Amino acid sequence: MAKLILNRLSKTFDLGGRPAVNDVSLTVREGGFLALLGPSGCGKTTVLRMIAGFEQPTDGSILLGERLLADASDMVPPEHRNMAMVFQSYALWPHMSVAENVGYPLKVRGISGEKRQRKVKGALSAVRLESFADRRPADLSGGQRQRVALARCLVTEPDVVLLDEPLANLDRHLRQEMEETFREFHARSGATMIYVTHDQAEAMALATDVAVMSEGRLLQVATPEEIYARPEGRLVGGLVGQGAILSLPSPEGDRRHLDWPAVQRLLTAEGDAPRADILVRPQDVEIAAEGAAVTVLSVLFEGERYALRLSLPDGQALRAFSRRPVKVGEALSIVIRSAWRL
């Protein structure tokens, strides 16, 4: 296996129109698990389709190690890339058994007999479906069908596995179960995995690296921890996590991480100083005896805690959590333990 490299990748569908993907460069490390995260229409699925070989770049190139997979003038066919793709719709043959579905890629490659049976059995064992080998897809639940699609990927021992919003059709319980299956699959296969999603919780739970996209452009690539704690810019800060972005006087110098004394100075500053975007996460907002005055706008009970929406005196809103119930309209004092200048 080798690194997957996207070099200034662009794709335009309409001549003279806005690019669906615009000058995207990133390197997916060998054996890594990259999540392409962004809202619908941001270009993430187009990037995935170009990697798979279903679309040709308008500009830029795609390389697997030193091997050129595609550029504007040449393209390796999908079947010669040693990649596997898991679709949102599962894409299983309804007239085939589970074992036949899983073994189909091997059949296409001319692998038969005991070797194919052994590989199919191993792939089904990896996704805990050995006892379902003779069933048809119609007899399976959504989560089981998704595991069959994963086994079909595993059986070919691909260099790269591409996943296009594979959990979108599943309920919350099955999503959590499948997230664990994906993690096991990644650890077992050792394949490089690229996972397209608009759900930031999925991206954070699964990926070793997250690439955030908006309007065809790549905004930031980092580990989940880095992208959550230190987002680059307002768009990334708004897409990742539940934080509120406040407009406050710009802090002095190039300092980006702000503690409570620094935030308090900004909240109480007077005059017409230049403004900056300050990201505040709800877990960093603490109800206190003394602090900044806020009014409770809404309260949502989440079982182990209450999710609050609060208003500062100037009308700006932020979020917080509370262990005790509060009432809409109640006046509180808060301390913001940590904030991040975008």
UniProtKB/TrEMBL annotation:
Keyword ATP-binding: yes
Keyword ATP-binding applies: yes
A cellular-component GO term for this protein: ATP-binding cassette (ABC) transporter complex
Pfam hit, one: ABC_tran
Chief location: membrane
Compartments where located: Cell inner membrane
Database matches in SMART domains: AAA (SM00382)
GO molecular function, one term: ATP binding
Keywords carried by this UniProt record: ATP-binding, Nucleotide-binding, Transport
Annotated ranges, domain ABC transporter: 4-240
Annotated membrane topology: Peripheral membrane protein
InterPro entries hit by this protein: AAA+_ATPase, ABC_SmlMolc_Importer, ABC_transporter-like_ATP-bd, ABC_transporter-like_CS, Mo/tungstate-bd_C_term_dom, P-loop_NTPase
Family: Belongs to the ABC transporter superfamily.
Protein name as it appears in the record: Iron(III) transport system ATP-binding protein
Species name: Xaviernesmea oryzae
